[in-house]
Structure to design on (613 residues):
């Protein structure tokens, strides 16, 4: 298609300028809070109270140092990473396997079973029943509570099933003629062809795992099994006390210097940054999978 | 003759198709068991609505109270109405702003540079993927005392002591709404962007031939093309009228805004976990779930009549 020069009238050009300004404004509103906490985490607490806007002032790594010295961040980061990897692997495997099963027309009770699973999307027993039930299953202070209950997810099953149904049936049929069994077809033919949707579900799953907090909050009190989200919440709500205890661990220097070396705000901002850095690093390259997933899901409605 | 008939009905004489059908069923059973264990088994707890639930006791040890917990709903109706007011306020405010992502998508579509458009898409969808805890961290950094807003206002000589919007009860609904929009706008716009991409080129050409300017084209071609998507999202939002989610309200709760921030999802949490009145919490949660299902099916029927398609 040849590029035709579109003559825009002055009003249209005006509209375009306004449009671009507004869109850019919203983009800045989305981005600046992240930028702000990042530059503040690298600034001295004194500078933060004076006003940090575009670049770190009094560049310092001391807040990071003080927080990392406490040690609980490392463990929480590890636990969050572990649950993200294991939970995602389990969920993706379970969802795709079940989705494949459901595409088999010959399955006895296929419609009923599918309906059973889909109904869970909108039938919610409630917070307390969920709490009572998982407690009854013995999920207290157990790492498995992070990955088992969420393994079979109706939304992901729908996404994957829709995708599988678009694959040509001839592939399966010819494989069956060659004597391939159910699992062989699943692992050697279906999965390799479904990379886009598997990637999409994996990315959704991983983000969900990283951001999940309720299972931690309600069922896990063991300090060795805390996740980043809850550690962040603790730091945010107890910033005053934590800042004080960090000041107490400082030695040397005058009172004023110690007082200013750590502030509740600097603590809050630094821990916030630590929680979002993984997502910030990984997000730009994964964004297209999210968008694809939504569009695939939007087709179903 | 009897055992011959028995034989012919045995498994080995089933057709290959039926045999496969059973095999798949067997493979599916673990998943069914899983779903029952984690999504349907909790429904059993609804029975505790008729008892005075005590943690760790068998049901035979719990006093049977019949409909007492339901009558409590009436006795505490002022509280319940307050919570319902908050819930509906948040839900209806959100519903009122459902056109906003569509507007943003249209605006985004008018950006000439594809590169810049993709950049905007990537940056504006980022807030959707951070947790509400992180948003609380960002909000604290900006709005709380000692945060960005206070610092900037101090520079202008304004030192009002109650500038912390997170502790402002009256501003709660609008503040929470704004946070929700900030988080979701970019992401929800993607659905509309996909819809715009699906609008027939010929309609645009026809409009140009008829001499439509930009605004007219948008009003008469783009917007009608988005209405089906908009209706689906609107109906889904209506079916979730009572479900605001716990995350956001749990995180932003503080005693100063408790009057306006307690929505149904938060109230269920408060009554059950903080006050430990499990039975009453189960009653509220149960009614909320049942009403939500009814809402969903009503909305589904409306959708069938309006669009000819159901949502679910």
């Amino acid at each position: 298609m040849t590029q035709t020069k579109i003559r825009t009238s002055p009003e249209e050009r005006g509209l375009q300028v306004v449009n671009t300004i507004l869109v850019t404004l919203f983009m800045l509103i989305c981005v600046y809070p992240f930028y702000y906490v990042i530059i503040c985490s690298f600034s001295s607490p004194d500078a933060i109270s004076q006003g940090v806007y575009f670049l770190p002032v009094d560049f310092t790594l001391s807040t990071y140092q003080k927080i990392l010295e406490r040690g609980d961040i490392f463990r929480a980061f590890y636990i969050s990473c572990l649950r993200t990897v294991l939970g995602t692997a389990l969920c993706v495997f379970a969802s795709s396997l079940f989705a494949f099963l459901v595409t088999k027309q010959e399955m006895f009770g296929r419609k009923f079973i599918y309906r059973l699973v889909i109904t869970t999307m909108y039938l919610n027993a409630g917070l307390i029943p969920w709490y009572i039930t998982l407690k009854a299953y013995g999920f207290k202070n157990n790492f498995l509570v992070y990955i088992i209950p969420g393994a079979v997810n109706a939304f992901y099953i729908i996404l994957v099933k829709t995708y599988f149904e678009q694959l040509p049936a001839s592939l399966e049929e010819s494989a069956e003629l060659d004597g391939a069994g159910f699992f062989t077809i699943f692992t050697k033919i279906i999965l390799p062809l479904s990379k886009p949707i598997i990637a999409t579900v994996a990315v959704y799953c991983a983000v969900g795992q990283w951001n999940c907090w309720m299972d931690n909050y309600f069922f896990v009190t063991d300090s060795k099994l805390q996740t980043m989200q809850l550690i962040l919440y603790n730091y945010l709500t107890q910033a005053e006390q934590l800042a004080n205890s960090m000041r107490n661990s400082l030695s040397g220097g005058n009172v004023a210097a110690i007082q200013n070396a750590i502030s509740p705000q600097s603590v809050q901002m630094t821990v916030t940054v630590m929680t979002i850095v993984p997502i910030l690093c990984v997000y730009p390259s994964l964004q297209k999978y999210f968008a694809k997933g939504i569009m695939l899901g939007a087709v179903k409605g | 003759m009897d055992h011959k008939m028995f034989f012919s009905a045995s498994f080995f004489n089933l057709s290959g198709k039926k045999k496969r059908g059973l095999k798949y069923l067997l493979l599916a059973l673990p998943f069914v068991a899983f779903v029952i264990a984690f999504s349907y088994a909790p429904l059993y707890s609804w029975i505790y609505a008729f008892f005075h639930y005590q943690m760790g006791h068998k049901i035979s040890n719990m006093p049977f109270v019949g409909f007492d917990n339901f009558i409590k709903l009436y006795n505490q109706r002022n509280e319940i109405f307050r919570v319902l007011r908050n819930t509906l306020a948040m839900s209806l405010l959100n519903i009122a702003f459902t056109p906003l992502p569509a507007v943003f998508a249209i605006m985004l579509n008018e950006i000439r540079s594809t590169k810049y458009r993709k950049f905007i898409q990537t940056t504006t969808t980022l807030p959707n993927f951070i947790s509400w805890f992180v948003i609380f961290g960002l909000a604290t950094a900006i709005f709380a005392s000692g945060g960005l807003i206070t610092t900037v206002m101090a520079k202008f000589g304004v030192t009002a002591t109650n500038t912390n919007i997170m502790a402002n009860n009256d501003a709660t609904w609008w503040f929470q709404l704004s946070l929700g929009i900030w988080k979701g706008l970019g992401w929800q716009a993607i659905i509309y962007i996909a819809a715009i991409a699906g609008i027939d080129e010929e309609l645009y050409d026809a409009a140009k031939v008829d001499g439509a300017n930009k605004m007219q084209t948008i009003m008469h071609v783009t917007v009608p093309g988005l209405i089906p998507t908009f209706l689906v999202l609107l109906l889904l939002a209506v079916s979730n009228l009572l479900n605001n989610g716990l995350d956001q309200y749990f995180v932003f709760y503080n005693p100063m805004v408790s009057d306006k921030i307690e929505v149904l999802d938060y109230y269920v949490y408060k009554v059950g976990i903080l006050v430990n009145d499990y039975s009453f919490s189960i009653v509220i949660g149960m009614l909320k779930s049942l009403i939500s299902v009814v809402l969903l099916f009503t909305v589904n029927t409306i959708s069938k009549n309006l669009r000819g398609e159901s949502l679910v």
